[in-house]
Amino acid sequence: MHIALLEDDKDQSELMQATLEDAGHKCVVFSSGKDMTMALVRESYDLLILDWLVPDMNGLEVLKWVRESMDWRIPVLFITQKDKEEDVVQALQGGADDYMSKPVKRAEMLARIESISRRSQPVNLDDEELEFAPYILQRSSKTVMLNGENIEITRKEYELTLFLFRNAGRVLSRGYILETVWGRSADVNTRTVDTHISRLRRKLNIGAENGWKLTSIYQHGYRLEKSESPT
């Protein structure tokens, strides 16, 4: 997962970042609420981890901004010293998905993140066949079918297709697409994303006639979402 961590204690943030990255996640740290919200306008993340007591905007204010401003319901985990029952209730009623008290227990944090990840997935990616009607994706053969007919695409185009459908409804930044589909060390630029998106739109015949639309978001990225089929 691509995780944004809001934590102003340097020792805590370094420990949590190391724990998350050792577990295979990518973690970007923010020390103030305003810094995090500014980044959320530009970049895409799979999970937010929020401390409550941070500069500029506290964690609860960041949560309120996220729920009011973001185009999809990104999962949020609170990890904070505020552990009274009323604090937990306030955070959960404000839209947090889970709540942990400090000090952080490594195994528990990773287990809660895994649980949140499972709940936030729109489909079971372990299934051999994934259906996003009228499209069907076959995991073993890395192929895509439209209305029962196979579409000729490359392996990378398949990976991009799966990523887009898996995140349907989200605005995805070009940088996030690059890191996730091509890998962090890939020597590519954002024009690679644009080129592949253009090819997929044409090859998959994405449009209202097939119930989907793929939109370019100015200076940010793309969003694949369901659309109304023509009558």
List keywords for this structure.
Rossmann fold; four-stranded antiparallel β-sheet; 40% helix; Arc Repressor Mutant, subunit A; 231 residues; single chain; alpha/beta; 23% strand
Can you describe this structure?
- The chain has helices spanning 10-22, 33-42, 59-69, 85-93, 106-120, 155-166, 174-182, 190-203, and strands at residues 2-6, 26-30, 47-50, 76-80, 98-101, 129-132, 135-138, 143-146, 149-151, 172-173, 212-217, 221-226.
- It is of the alpha/beta class and 231 residues long.
- It has two domains: 2-120, 3-Layer(aba) Sandwich (Rossmann fold); 129-226, Arc Repressor Mutant, subunit A.
- The strands form three sheets. The chain has a five-stranded parallel sheet, sandwiched between helices. Strands 6-7-8-9 form a four-stranded antiparallel sheet, with helices on one face.
- α7 packs across α8 (190-203).
- The longest helix has 15 residues, at 106-120.
The CATH topology name of the largest domain reads Rossmann fold
User: What is the CA–CA distance across the termini?
Assistant: 39 Å
Number of domains: 2
Main pleated sheet: 5 strands, parallel
Mean pLDDT: 89
CATH architecture of the largest domain: 3-Layer(aba) Sandwich
Spatial strand order of the main sheet: 2-1-3-4-5
- Reading the helices and strands in chain order gives EHEHEHEHEHEEEEHEHHEE
The CATH class of the largest domain: Alpha Beta
Radius of gyration over C-alpha positions, nearest whole angstrom: 19 Å
Structure class: alpha/beta
Per DSSP, what share of the residues sits in E-state strands of 2 or more residues? 15-25%
Number of strands: 12
Please name the fourth-level CATH homologous superfamily of the largest domain: Response regulator
| Shape category | elongated
Number of helices: 8
**Poorly predicted segments:** none
Report the helical percentage.
40-55%
